[in-house]
Amino acid sequence: MKRKKGKEQSFDPARLIPGHITRLEPYSSARKESEGSGTGAIYLDANELPEALQGMPPYINRYPGNETEELRSRIAAIKNIAGDRIFLGSGSDEIIDLLMRAFARSGKDEIMIFPPSFGMYQSRAEVNDLGVIKSDLGPGFMIDSKKALGETTENTRIIFVCSPNNPTGNLQPRGEIIRLLEGFNGLVVVDEAYIDFSPGSSLLPLLDEYPNLVVLQTFSKAFGMAGARVGMSFSSPEIRNTLDRIKLPYNLGIPSVKLAIQALNTYADHRLIVERIIKTREELSQKLALMPLVEKVYPSDANFLLVRTTNAASIYGHLAGRGVIVRRRDNEPGCEGCLRVSIGSDAENSRLIEVWQEYGKETGVVTGRESLSAPATQRQASFRRKTSETDITVRINLDGKAYSSISTGIGFFDHMLEQIPRHGMMDLEIFARGDLHVDAHHTIEDTGISLGKALVKALGDKKGIGRYGFSLPMDDSSASVLLDLGGRSYFKWEAEFSSGQAGGVPTGLYKHFFRSFAEAALCNLHITAEGEDDHHIVEAVFKAFARTLKMAVKQNESDTLPSTKGLL
Hints:
The relative contact order is 0.08. The protein has helices spanning 19-22, 30-33, 67-79, 91-103, 120-127, 145-151, 174-183, 237-246, 254-265, 267-288, 312-321, 346-363, 368-371, 411-417, 419-424, 441-459, 508-521, 534-553; strands at residues 86-89, 110-113, 131-134, 156-162, 187-191, 213-218, 231-234, 294-297, 304-309, 327-328, 338-342, 380-386, 390-397, 404-407, 427-434, 468-471, 478-484, 490-495, 501-502, 505-506, 524-530. By secondary structure, the protein is α/β, with parallel strands linked by helices. The protein is 35% helix and 19% strand. The protein has three domains: 64-265, Type I PLP-dependent aspartate aminotransferase-like (Major domain) (Aspartate Aminotransferase, domain 2), CATH 3.40.640; 270-371, Aspartate Aminotransferase, domain 1; 380-553, Ribosomal Protein S5, domain 2. α16 runs parallel beside α17 (508-521). It is built from 18 helices and 21 strands.
């Protein structure tokens, strides 16, 4: 197949629709077509029973009427989305299938997925006789948009992106998804089934800007309605109308619609439950990190955790044999030894830990982390700072393995922040929403403050840390960073730039970022840098800072404070 080249000027969904689909008329009942369907109308058009059986809800004998329109209206108000952009399906699974049938030709076209990911994309593609291009996720289970676009062909019709991703739990960088939207002249379907559990924002605000974007959400997860099977898609009206044309009549039953409306009426309770799940997720993550044969618990933006073990089959069998069912994911790319664990109730989570600990007693393995000569507990923390200008969440694990997920809306700044986990060998997630329509100042400043606060929380009592860190010159630019985590704030900056901007960001804001960090982290921070290329100078500073931080937070075998004063 011939490879596509370049970006086409505009997107027309009609280009993707097979001819027989364009000729279809949506199913329309006599009731819908008539004007006499108001209160008091006599319905003799659909061969229904005139009344419900005893004990049944009084509406159950009738086919759905305007109930779905009421639900659509409620969703539109909450999501701030026009109603003609919303399609309702029997779970997201039905919508995934309809998108393939509407915009790809059976036996000719193909979709793209990013393994490891939600299995329904490939399953429905096979049912619809579509090819599947697999572009495996890269380090940190992140999409490589440049690689993916190079792998599409003229017959690639839909790219499916799961974000937060199932089974890995991580949110995909917004910039990577935007590059897919801009570089691909087909549908980019972003499945946000778990978005409510993530500090990262939904892509719904991008619908006006990108007509090839389709966003999927569901009532199954954060609304606790998996049994009701109610899914939502948000797209251009043209795409939504095409789905209406091919869906089955009455694809949502009245009970499911009424339950969804009821769920939206208790939106505050929904948010409280989500916050509880997020808190429980962090607590369970720390406990699972200490379980036998556990190598890593991946950071998650969903209501589950991906746990890497040294023997997934053995642990799974032990848990299942005692009535605790988790999901094996060790046969998927990059998930060797992994189990996926949903966040349950407090009692369910306690039983999980109890049974897993029993496995350790039976096998003689006390904890996974001790067997790896790692700290007995992970030094990790979350911090959220919300002001009138910004909403920023930082999660840091000082004993991680260089996992990163950074999204501030400022591309070059994201790239610089990624140097911290990569060269500091720690896990770092930063999700920021700020008033970038004004400028980058508040976002960069508050990111520095949030990172500093998160570091202080993760360090805890600071026992056993190195405390001091320093870095020698590196790369073609000279960058030296000196650091003392002693608990007193002082900041010194000596960096010369040849222009007023680096990476589209005013160079003065980099100084401001590190000053904000130093003040929030209560540390001494001295930075000196020079060079010929401003881009390289900034990058050298961030890399040097990362290596310095790595040195300062490193724990030794001592449980003492690195201070003659006995206080840090």
